[in-house]
User: Fold this.
Amino acid sequence: MLKNYAMLKPFSDLGINNPLQQSLKALHITEPTAIQVKTIPVVLNQKEDVVVLAKTGTGKTAAFGLPLLQLIDIENNEVQTLILAPTRELGQQIYNNLVSFSTNTPEITIASICGGTSIKPQIAGLKDATHIVVATPGRLVDLIKRDAISLKNLKYLVLDEADEMVSALKEDLDLIIKDVPKTRRTLLFTATMPGAIKQLVQNYMSKKVVQIEADMETVGHQGIDHQYVVVEPIEKLEVLLHFLNSKEGEHGIIFCKTKAAVNKLAKNLAINKFSSGALHGSLTQGIRDRIMGQFREGFIDILVATDLAARGIDVKDVSYVINYHLPDTYDAYVHRSGRTARAGAKGLSLTILQQEEVVDISDFEKELGITFKPFKKADAQSIEENNGLLWAKKIFKTKPNREVSEDFKAKIKTIFHHLTKEELVDKILANYLAQTGAETLKPEITKKGKRH
DNA sequence: AAAAAAT
Assistant:
């Protein structure tokens, strides 16, 4: 941050107009990030297409959003700008950001065109003047096929997380690009430059392409503390629960490999009274929106998610990310860990491994140029103690059963009447251990996660 | 093999 300070200019120097500056001020955004300094003038200049290589999204949305808002022609009622994102959550986030940037330019209309919600209001809304559309590819293709949207006067096309879109959403993307005029300008944001991206640049972008690179050292990994811990399969959940208990009051994201694993882990966290929610692509959009909203607002502390949440999601004060399963690709690791340590903050990225996966960690180090520090695993005794604390917390958080009659409760109270609190705790604990047949407390776990 | 995206 400090290293880059000299090159940072105020937004006015970058050519951002007064209404937008006022909006930024109201949002307490005072200084442009490095990527914004490099990107905004090029976009405003209106000459070249842009390819931005940036690993994590510090300020990406504003880097294209601000200049594109400024370039909207209010007199023209057709769709002038199209922004594509790979997930609905990211699309919604970009839409919300643009809306917040445009509070002082209410005449600019922005539409969010993502799937999972009723298509009818979207079709109706598009009949009115719409200047900017933020979309996920599937729903947009649907609207194009229904002739509900016209992109024939499009001036700007933004592809966010373009590497993900060319790999997973290629077919839809090709259809969309075929439908937009060749004269439009393209802004492409990507973490990596796989062959598919190079091809896209070659085939679909103009000859004048400016490539912008964020300084990976300062932007990509700054502030993230990468750690790993090796566990036996049987102790994996206990080690996690111990970690989470030490992070009480902080916010984090736990990534799992599959939807079923997300469901199962979220259920286990819920049973153990952690404030958490599950997020993956097989939940209804209503539930996805609710969980995302609760996490954003801080009503839940822990988000358990598939790679759906790996890219672009920007939530304040996420102080740790956990890889409960090793990510499939190096890219995925960068994206997942990039959910923490945002906007200059610090964060921990902890990867939980089994013995046979330890070799992979050195591959990640080599490929990504990072060093994993060993996380000091709690010893057996403190894990045991933590299990006891979880058990107690669970009892503490259990709501009294209203069905039990006052009369009956009174009778039970008489039995315990002469006991001190300490004696009562001793008895409950001993009783619990006798019942479970265990020598020490174990966290309660579900047999199965819901299948999807 | 799994994840995302259209109903």
